């Protein structure tokens, strides 16, 4: 975290975005000794300790950020073993890499389940879907955020969440109105099984890809992905919607991107990151495909891109009517 003071808000379980904490470690500058938010039920330190997550503070995180901005993403090591020498720690860092590692398998669900949690009224800023038809959506869990499911439910979707290895044939047997490919960690090239699943579903039903799902769609369409110098992380990335020329402020968290020059004819780049010009959204109308590299559900974060869920509903609606 580059913000100097962390922990003063504390932790509450209403804000959890996954079924468990998947953190391996947390590095911060200054740990607050008190919490002040009225929703707090636990301190950050206690939260991490109960989940056996390593944390370290009194680290100059802004100096680290400046180094990463210059040299790109680097591998670091945290250890509680004081007996290890600097050379041993360096060797540990050199023996690991994020490239080519399947991180999805460690965060996906173990079996399909129905999403039944309702969005609390005080948080449901858009209830347009309640007067519409219900749409059946299969959501592939590559590390899915709960607010994606909440937003789809608010727009009138009945959702079944399935594991990352769930066969495409089983998905199609359920006759969904649409399929969502979720966000998730790591290298999309390291999960060829997921790319194959996406390929088998494309053209059969409308699909919506978010973050990792966007990258997998890019590969399934014949495009290539690449590791960025230091990725996009944080809640204030400006993105231009090329269709309506609006600028959206977005929340992003990814290290890989789709190379638009590698995409076949007919695939449209719909959104562009204004910081570096990278591809932030795709569409392929011929196959009823849409995707975003960032997080339209943004919890926490801006709501500028929430209209993407309405667009997915409209995509399913038009496909249903055409049939």
From TrEMBL:
GO biological processes: 'de novo' pyrimidine nucleobase biosynthetic process; glutamine metabolic process; L-arginine biosynthetic process
Location of the Carbamoyl-phosphate synthase small subunit N-terminal domain: 1-79
Highest taxon, organism lineage: Eukaryota
GO MF annotation terms: ATP binding; carbamoyl-phosphate synthase (glutamine-hydrolyzing) activity
PANTHER family for this protein: CARBAMOYL-PHOSPHATE SYNTHASE ARGININE-SPECIFIC SMALL CHAIN, CARBAMOYLTRANSFERASE FAMILY MEMBER
Family label: Belongs to the CarA family.
Catalyses which reaction(s): L-glutamine + H2O = L-glutamate + NH4(+)
EC number assigned by the record: 6.3.5.5
Name by which UniProt lists this protein: carbamoyl-phosphate synthase (glutamine-hydrolyzing)
Enzyme class: ligase
Keywords for the protein's UniProt record, in alphabetical order: Amino-acid biosynthesis, Arginine biosynthesis, ATP-binding, Ligase, Nucleotide-binding
GO CC annotations on file: carbamoyl-phosphate synthase complex
Pathway: Amino-acid biosynthesis; L-arginine biosynthesis; carbamoyl phosphate from bicarbonate: step 1/1
Subunit structure, interactors included: Heterodimer composed of 2 chains; the small (or glutamine) chain promotes the hydrolysis of glutamine to ammonia, which is used by the large (or ammonia) chain to synthesize carbamoyl phosphate.
Native species: Gossypium tomentosum
